[in-house]
Design a protein that fits this description.
It comes from Peteryoungia algae. The chain is built from 1 helix and 3 strands, in the order E-E-E-H. By secondary structure, it is an alpha+beta fold. A hairpin with a 2-residue loop joins strand 2 and strand 3.
Length: 54
């Protein structure tokens, strides 16, 4: 499952940080990515969830 957090950049624009918890080969780790638009962040979470829940 992933979470999206909005954060302000120095120039005043908003960035959306995606943090996903992934278990692979019995090891749990976190992946983070930053996006300029919220729909892109949401799409990334959906894509990764489909990859790991098949």
């Amino acid at each position: 499952m992933g979470t999206i957090r909005a954060r302000k950049r120095k120039d005043g624009s908003v960035a959306y940080r995606v943090r996903m918890r992934v278990m692979q080969d019995g090891v749990t780790y976190h992946e983070t990515e930053t996006f300029d638009r919220r729909p892109a962040a949401t799409a990334r979470i959906s894509k990764r969830e489909r990859q790991y829940h098949c």
